Amino acid sequence: MNKWRELVLVGGGHTHALVLHELAKRPLYQTHITLISDVEYAPYSGMLPGHVAGFYTHEEMHIDLPKLCKKAGADFLHASVNSIDLDARCPLVNGQKLGPKADLISINVGSTPDSHGVPGVAEWAIPSKPVPQLLAGWERLKTAAESAAQPLRVVVVGGGAGGVELTLAMQFQTCGKADYTLVNNGPQIMSGHNDGARERLSAVLIQRGVTVMLENSVTEVKANGVHLQNGRWLPADYIFWVTSPAPPAWLRESSLALTDGGFIRVKPTLQTIHHPWVFAAGDVASIENQRTPKSGVFAVRMAKPLTANLRAFLENDPLSPFKPQKNFLSLIGTADGKAVASHRWLAMHSRLMWTWKDWIDRRFMRQFG
Ligand SMILES: Cc1cc2nc3c(=O)[nH]c(=O)nc-3n(C[C@H](O)[C@H](O)[C@H](O)COP(=O)(O)OP(=O)(O)OC[C@H]3O[C@@H](n4cnc5c(N)ncnc54)[C@H](O)[C@@H]3O)c2cc1C
After folding, report:
1. Handedness of CA 53, 56, 293, 253 (dihedral sign)
2. Is 17 in the pocket of ligand 1 (CB under 6 A)?
3. Domains of the chain in sequence order
């Protein structure tokens, strides 16, 4: 009789949630699965700004990981991994081995916003990830805004889709009780999107009273504001940090091959380049010779090929490459019952686009219900 194999999933991101969903429908042969996650309820990024805007409850935008594991016949371990012992084939938590000796490990721990070495970020800014920290910061701001004698001053650093969508969601909920400034280091918001989408979102930001500061870098964060590269001091009661994604620092403790930026280098099969039995997916993975965007859309798209390749690896079958689509649709909510659609050169801002986004996101979450 064949011996049982051990598959250890580190992190319950979008990709692993879908892998577990697939494995619940079609289990792996004689394989015991363990999921290690630092949260029991995994946030779904597509609904995050909508939750802040008050359109979705906490429950509606979170995946119940222990329940999902139960369906997939997997063990759930609630812990924060901070290294991987590749010789012992085991994740480590504060130097201690956790979980069984693995035949296969897959890593899907996401990213956090890059502090770019700016002093004071860790102490004073509210990061967009981990999401529980963002939501705790948002709750503090919301509560303070309700009783503030004067409008609170809020600075959001990072003018990508996440920063813009989050700003509009927070502004919608605290209208008249907080003033928002969006600081972006590039010459325009939403780099990577078309001009039409940028113009529509810029117009919404202006209409909603958000001050947008372009080509401005934050050089230091203090308790009561931020210093800008141009020498200006911007006073703030709350500072949200929504910059480009950076990998978890603990990866440097493992001997996995990393990019210069610290992301895990993987082949198109999502196998790490020197350890074929270790896979990585989602924001944390960097596919060799590809520039796959770090977004929930791609983390979701990696789920099917990852599941297929984990299965193929265990069955000694050939593995297939993940082929990312070049063009993809983005739907950015404007927290007024509308969304901006951005696809290649096409842009549209309407209620229909929000209805469409809401339908896509609710359908995604229904899989885990
Ligand atoms: C405000 C905002 C809005 C966004 N909106 C969108 C959007 O609308 N559409 C879109 O496509 N993308 C969006 N994104 C980007 C999206 O959030 C990420 O690209 C996506 O979440 C990456 O998915 P992932 O599967 O790699 O990891 P994640 O979904 O981030 O999940 C990683 C998981 O691993 C867990 N974890 C982390 N470290 C450890 C550890 N050491 N041990 C154990 N567990 C660990 C985390 O708790 C988390 O549950 C948004 C981002 C932000 C900040």
Report:
1. positive
2. no
3. 5-111+247-314 (3.50.50.60), 113-244 (3.50.50.60)
